[in-house]
Design brief:
Elements (H helix, E strand, L loop, with lengths): L6 H23 L26
Amino acid sequence: MPQLNPNPWFLTLLMSWTIFSLIFQPKLLQFTTTNPPSNMNLTTTKTTSWIWPWT
C-alpha cells in the first residue's frame, strides 16, 4: 500500500506549510477587517416582568 509510505508525502506537507507560513500568512494578515471591534457601552436595562393573564 503506497499511500502509507510517508516518504514522498511528508516533504510535500512540510514544504507546503513552510510556504504557507512564510509567504501567504503575512500577506493575509495585512488585510484589515471591514468591521473592527469597537468598545461597546454596557448598559443595563430594566425589564418588566411578564404579566400572565391567567394568574
